[in-house]
Amino acid sequence: MLRKSARTFIALALGATIALPLLPSAQAADTQTRGVNWRADKDALPGTVVYSAKTVGAAEQFTGCVMGFSDPACDPKSSTLLVNNYLPLCESEKTLDCIDAVTWKKSDGTLVTGKYSKIRGSEWADYAFARNEALHVNKPTLPQVFTFDGLTHSKGTEFAVTAHISTRITAGVAADPDISLVILPVYQVAGLDPADDAECITANGADVDSVCYKIGDLAEAARFKLSLKLLARPQGWMTGRVVDPSITFTAPTDTEKRTVVTLEGTSMDVQTIDRTYSSAKPTDKAKWDTVATAFGDSRAPWSTAGDATYPLPPDKTSISIFNSIVSAEKDASASTTPTFDIADSLKSLWRVDLQPKGRAEGVSCDSSNFQGFVSSNAMVYKSALPNYDKTTGTLDYSISSPHYKPDGKTEFLGRYDLLVATDYARCVWDLKAGEIPAKDAVTVTIEKAGEKKVISAEMSLDDQYFKFTAQGFTFSQAKLSIKLKAKESITAPAPAPAPATPAATPAKPAAAKTITITCVKGKTTKKVTAAKPVCPAGFKKK
After folding, report:
1. What is the pLDDT of residues 274-288, one digit of tens each?
2. How far is Cα 96 from Cα 89, in angstroms, rounded to an integer?
3. Helix axes 318-332, 282-294, angle to 10 degrees
4. pLDDT tens for residues 231-257?
5. CB burial string 450-476: b at 16+ within 10 A, e below
6. How far is 115 from 121, CA to CA, in rounded Å?
7. If you write DSSP's letter for every residue of 49-98 in order, what string do you get?
8. pLDDT surpassing 70 at residue 158
9. N or C, which terminus of the chain has less Cβ within 10 Å?
10. Torsion from C-alpha of 121, 316, 473, 273, nearest 10 degrees
11. How far apart are the first and last CA of the chain?
């Protein structure tokens, strides 16, 4: 769908949380379309635009600022603004947040440095804005395309490296930004097909970019390492779509006092759903009515003219909407597999989201430092962060995804990685100094359809993180609960006892009585002295 304004775009992106203006249909006057999708490969708020935010009822509405901060309604000193942009490369940016390096880690451990190829997309001139270092805002910046020697995919060698940054400004004060990092195998498509715009990976929309990149397929998962230089050291939690995540922080060394944050992980396949319904098809109309009911409100009824699409984020209310749709389909036809229990596609991607304000619920432990990283291949989740249940002493994580892959037959197997900062973990599970979890201490309970099952999980730890991995479980709905059920102590060696007062040296025992005998062999004679002397072989006692 082509974007006519920043207002229209933002409404579409946040359709689940704010009122959605219906767009005039480009089809026949009596034909409308409705759509819903979950796409982890796309940002909910891409683009290089400043938005003014206004609360209307229980929702927040956004309006694009024409000419950026110069717009009278977008004065950063008096307005609430949301600045969306992309991070530049540190090679050219010496002050603000930037991308320091991107590398591919081969199976033998060799690191291949990514080579910058080109920018991706075009600037949106109508919404240009000025650089403002005091607010940590860069000028409009476009995302990059890289190549890695020896790494290919089904459509070529290009990889889109996207670092989308969203900074909220309130009354002249900038909060620490949210940053979404995505690495995708991509290829450029010649020309634009308005009917196929939804598959384009763009910076400012296909109509602005005038170029379309689509996602290729990796023959096997790739492990990437991405380093950033950030003015604000990440706190709270990170979330992602990577296997076996790793995080390191390097103290500032440059004059701008930027922390180097290095994120490493292996790409994973994530399911997507992207459905469109037409009023010209009676079966489609009935299907949309089922979907719309799951939103819990009167969502774009067919009596309202125009087209509407709802791109939904993976968190917030998405999990309840998805579960409600699957449940409604099961109620309508218990003998057939719900259509939403079958994915439309699998997307191979590498994604990490930095959320400086992210905090796990139910925990009173110190949250001023980095707490952890949670990653899953589930399509949707109740919260990006785990919830701590004081009653059970568990970190809980509710997730959902289609039960089957796109073929409708193969079960989609879930994976869950949890990395918890050591100090934070000790507080959550009440581990005293010197205590560590025993190797069999972790239990992961998977709860599905009212049934609970303890599944096997891997656990490792070092001086920085406790790491948990659970995999091989199935969907549609699942709740994972992680608990440390046992402890073992690291006991320091007992100090050596103080030396006692030396006792008197006992008298040596008397030497045993010995006897000497004479042994002969021909003309040879030998004497043998011992307590019980015996002649050598061949000798006889004289």
Report:
1. 999 999 999 999 899
2. 10
3. 130
4. 988 888 888 999 999 999 998 877 778
5. eeeeeeebebeeeeebbbbbbbebebb
6. 18
7. EEEEEEEETTEEEEEE-TTGGGSGGG-TTTSEEEEEEE--BTTT-SSS-E
8. yes
9. C
10. -50
11. 121
d(CA 341, CA 247): 34
By the 8 A CB rule, do 421 and 371 touch?
yes
Q: For 480-502, what is each residue's pLDDT tens digit?
A: 877 765 455 444 344 445 555 44
Give me 77's structure tokens: 């000193």
The H-or-E segment that residue 480 falls in is: strand 477-484
Please provide residue 321's backbone torsions phi and psi, each rounded to the nearest 5 degrees. Answer: -65, -50
Which residue, 382, 319, 376, 269, is CA-closest to 41? 269
Which pTM value belongs to this model?
0.79
- 140 backbone φψ class: left, alpha, beta (φ>0; ψ -120 to 50): beta
Distance, CA of 499 to CA of 449 (rounded, Å): 66
Residue with tokens 């010649």: 190
Tens digit of each residue's pLDDT (9 = 90 or more) over 362-412: 566 766 788 889 899 999 887 767 777 778 777 788 889 999 999 999 999
Positive or negative, the CA dihedral 61, 65, 69, 73 is negative
3-state secondary structure of 206: helix
